[in-house]
Amino acid sequence: MIPELSSLSVCMRDPQRVEEIIKAMQKAGTSTIQVISDFDMTLTRFAYNGKRCPPSHNILNNSRLISEECKAQLKDLLNTYYPIEIDSKWTVEEKLPLMVDWWTKAHTGAAAHQERPAAGSLPAVFSNYMDFDETGLKSRHNVLLVGDSLGDLTMADGVHSIEDILKIGFLNDKVEERKTSYLNAYDIVLVKDETMEVPNALLLHLTSTK
Ligand SMILES: Nc1ccn([C@@H]2O[C@H](COP(=O)(O)O)[C@@H](O)[C@H]2O)c(=O)n1
Question: ipTM higher than 0.90?
Fold first, then answer.
């Protein structure tokens, strides 16, 4: 087992199964692996030195191009919807339309209230943009999936003929309340881990030639 997996912040429902998946992926080789990762609070930190880090949407909250009125609205939306996002009593299916409501209200509000900068152009945000090269990802049947919510577990749903998939989940908030559901859903659960150390070490391990 790789040393990083013995850290106290790493929890696994079935460590033996994790080891089997890692060995199978390593045997299959680098060219078969693709990484599918969430962004906010996964590739970016949830907290640093115990202080909460902002998600991408907070770029708007901190922008001079957004009016104070709109910032207050965005804060209200966060206070309304974030508790739902992390509430273990709601299913992913129940939460999804509410999360869409959140983004829609935040985006509509920000677009309506933004103040045009002196240069005249407004900032544009792109997300979920895929750029494939000529080889595509067709031959990569092994997936390293990294996320921070139970909704992220569907990120690999469109991948054809998956051989092995290793799911790594950051459990950032409401740890005790959500630990069981995360352990049931993710192969590796990283509890209040402020780094990408484990996913990075795993990737290095999987792509190293022995
Ligand atoms: N208007 C919004 C919408 C979402 N958020 C937060 O951003 C995070 C996005 O995370 P992903 O896992 O979807 O990358 C999410 O955790 C929300 O808490 C926000 O702050 N404002």
Answer: yes
